[in-house]
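Attaching the record inline, Q. Sequence:
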Amino acid sequence: MTKFYFLALTFYTTMIFSQKKDSATLISEVKIDSYKKPTTFITSTKSVSVVSENLLNQNPPERLLESINQIAGARMEERSPGSYRISLRGSTLRSPFGVRNVKVYLDDFILSDASGNTYFNVISPELINRIEIFKGPESGDFGAATGGAVLLQTQNAEHVSGSLSLGSYGTFNESINFSKQAGKHFFQIFQNYYRTDSYREQSAVERKHIFLKDNFQYSKNAELKAMILLSDIDYQTPGGLTLEQMELNRKQARPKTAALPGANEQNAGIRNKMILAGISHEFAIIPNLSHFVLVQGSYVDFENPFITNFENRYESNFAVRTHLNYQQNWEKISAEWRLGYEGGTNHIFIKNFDNNRGAEGDPQNFDQLKSNSGFFFVSQKLNFSEKLFSDISLSLNSNSYAWEKLYPVSENGETKFKDQLLPNFGVTYLIGNGFSLRGKTGKGNSAPTNEEIRSSNQEFNLNLVPEFGWNKEIGIRKQFGNFLFAEAGYFDFRLKDAIVRRQNERGEEFFVNSGETVQKGFEILLESKNFNLKNDFFSNFKFRFSGSFYDFKFQDYQQGENDFSGNDLTGVPKSTINSLLNFTFFKILSVDYSHFYTSKIPLNDANTAWSDSSLVGNIQFRFPVVIEKTKLNLFLQIQNIYNTDYVLGFDINAFGNRYYNPAAKRNFVLGVKAEF
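Structure, as predicted:
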């Protein structure tokens, strides 16, 4: 409790002694891009959060977890270093690794493949300049996903920097970020190298990343953008432990059993090489009418030595997105209409071999899988007298896949899911300056991904069907003067045919539709501006608090003879509370003090195993040194300052009760970022 008393005392002291507020942009006036449908935060009809520069500064070099987890309703998990999941309102129910059921974009381009899977870990956190997170179905803009969407944005202004850092467990990170306006071209060149031995055995990570882009404004009415991303990540996977194994030795990798070898013995890990390239073009045909189009392709070379097999996966992807946008303004009404299409195809060739201590052995299964998905969308935004704002959208979504067994037997087939018409309607009413009420309802749909149709048990899961559901929510946003912003929202999401993960006795996963879920939740945010305390010692202070309070239940869920109806939804905590305090001392030394509280989590559908609740604290010291035209930003990060025993990502419904992936104890990162 002393940790909370300290936070309360700091907040009280600040409110008494603060006398002058900064003049930075009000939070309510922050612009939301929403993939080229801009609006202000206070008038947005969507459940959206912005990960700002202040939040991005809290991340260690290898991950975006600390910044994303400050967002109410968003939760990034780390099963082991390099293996990440993103949950938006419980959407990791079906994700053993990677990101599923959440659409991810990088600037104009689509990071998710046609089946809905995203290799989020190929992105270096230092590349990202801003993130917009949309919670709940947004099918009218982003297609079929019930979890939501994440929009990653890279540098959009001139910037030249280099960073270097060292940390616990042999951590090393360096990056170069160069962006420059040269005539009609805006270039960015980004390079990153990261490696660590990590906390546990068999959990080393190495990532190499290069990103190039050119935004060519070749006329006042048109812009051509080109991008290429190259990433090579190699990370070992220590595997899940039982509670007894974790209590005996938190650092150990999954040990061998009488029937199966261990993670060390099999050199378990993932090696993922990816190249993504694309071109987009935006053209204002007339002042009120514009056209946008993008074309992109990617190739993935994925290698996964696992306990029971050695898998090679070769993926090729192609995607397009195009839309027409028309705007019209009258005396008291403004309107915007959009008509477009987004679609993609994903082809995978999968080869499974015996795993002979990390080397390919005899062949087991060779298969091919091709997924096609797409959606037509139409939307209308209306603004009545800058008081009433509405956003109505409708999309027609299609998904299909063709599968073929090549070895040891020859067999093939094709499945086309029923087309889904997905409406969304949102409205915001501006009660007064900086004070709004909003309401939203929408339908979401999410087809099984390739990794769920053909999961690690090497069987085609032909009985899987898309999950779908309706979401209803209301919210309030209030700006108090220019110093405090508050937001609260309530949602009720009813999901049918929910896809959940299972494991067999060999640790291989498979997926089933689990009936219905009822997901009700309350999310809050309280954030201040930067208070100027007019004190040479204690100069500035800023605070941020967020929380999620959920009641997620299975409904009508029968598994064999077991009836799990009424049980809590697996893998989702009932409550998370996050805080970030930014102090400035002597007008130059910045101290960032953050906390993450997570309540206990059900680890299986039967609710017979639960995690402990956890409170994790981090602290960061930042000190700038200016040498002529160069600014050196020195920083020291201390992660897990209370040395808490906790888990950042559980293996839910794991066979043999191997639910636990222990996170690192107290650790350090020391570095410098030079800005030129």
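The chain has six helices and 40 strands. Helices lie at 2-17, 53-56, 65-68, 139-142, 243-248, 450-453.

More tomorrow.
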